[in-house]
Amino acid sequence: MEYDWIHLFQHEWRCQVKSVKGLRKAFYLETDRGNVYVKSYTSAAKAAWVVSLSQQMREKGLHQVLDYVYTAGGLPYLPYKGKYYVAIRSIRGRVATYANREDVLAAIRCLGDFHYHARGISGGPMSRTTSTPLLDKWEDRSGRFASIVRKLKRNRYGGSLEKKIIGFAPLIVSEAESVMDLARRSPLLKEYQKALKEQTISHRDLASHNFIVGQNTTLIDYDTAMYDTQLVDVIQMLNRVLDEQAWDSQVFGTMMNEYQRRMPFTDTQMALSYLLLRYPDNFMREVVGLYEGRLNFIPQKIEGYLTMIMKNWQERASFFRGFRHFFHEDTHRDSSIVV
User: Fold this and answer.
1) Nearest-angstrom CA–CA distance, 30 and 10
2) Which of 148-152's residues contact partners 24+ apart within 8 Å by CB, and which partners?
3) What are the chain's domains?
4) Beta 78-80 vs 83-89: how paired, if at all?
5) CA 320 to CA 247: how far, in whole Å?
6) Which pTM does this prediction carry?
7) Tell me, what's the pLDDT at 334?
8) Is the Cβ–Cβ distance between 269 and 302 less than 8 Å?
9) Are 297 and 290 in contact (CB under 8 A)?
10) Could you give the CA distance from residue 136 to residue 273 in angstroms, rounded to a whole number?
């Protein structure tokens, strides 16, 4: 990190920097006024938004929220060479893991609290889609996954990981197409439109490392937060947890009960949760991330993760047996699904 940047940081945040360490996509700074994480954005609007979201939720009563430090000039970010830096006070605790059921319960309670306060939020970003962001993302990922599988099939010298992906791809594609067919005709669009009207924020990145577990649990990293139905968060978290927990229906039931203590579901939302959870997003996400060259996607770890998904596929199939009882065709309307 440049000396001029550190000098500016010390002046604007009124501290003395003792050390600087790189951490994921951020920097961790030890200072004489406490330790902070520093992240950069290419847009001033994006930097201002993540700080505003935290501040608005704090004003609504959520205390376990990111605590941003303002500059000496009262700005929520520090401009420097075309980037906009925000400083976040360090949170005591450890990164959660979805293999640990205690962490899972702490995380789902935290998510419920986050969702409860992330309503009526002003100034947030929204998708320009005419459908729903979730289905747009899934359609894009499905196309990229299919393209990668075709390339792997043309490669005669693929290794064990490639052979696993090719062999399992038909099941993944079939499952994805089945869910997408129902989801396009479901009430999901109405849920999304309702979220826009009520200015409801969804976090949209429920990886386990975004929960810090300590005396309390905090959901961090608001980079992807935007107006959307909060169902997408619940689905994403359930999907990742249940892959780790071998699709244990008891884990699913406990998580849903804990979440609904804070955020009760309607019958429609419950049925949609069960439908959308069936989409095999994790398998495709890992494959796309690996073969599109993302730096944090490590082949050995991904092979282990994909092997776990394949190993638990029968348990997954048992979990979803009978799911269509939640839905029926409405003969009085064109191509619609009713829950």
Assistant:
1) 11
2) 148/287, 148/288, 148/291, 148/292, 149/287, 151/291, 152/291
3) 3-90 (3.30.200.20), 101-338 (3.90.1200.10)
4) antiparallel
5) 10
6) 0.92
7) 47
8) no
9) yes
10) 17
